[in-house]
Amino acid sequence: MPLQFIGIDPETGDKHSPTVWVDREHRELVLQGWRPGTELAAECAAFEVPGHAKGIPEDEAVIRIPARMVHMIREACECDTRSLQLSG
Length: 88
Prior knowledge:
Radius of gyration: 15 Å
Strand content: 15-25%
Number of helices: 2
Largest sheet: 3 strands, antiparallel
Number of domains: 1
Oligomer: single chain
Order of helices and strands: EEEHH
């Protein structure tokens, strides 16, 4: 099943494109955002969460999403919740 496009940051122009999709088949949100700077990446990697190793695993990434896109992320969450209710 193809990704369902939710939205793209309308303020980034044609050179940048933080984007939100829903992958219904895998029940996941798919986010495209900006790479973090060196300091932010180091801060995230050093953050301690009980029961988890420090660092960013090789198969994961930290991204930055503009706060103005929160409504798109909420819409993606609601879309996924609705699909789960329909299939469950």
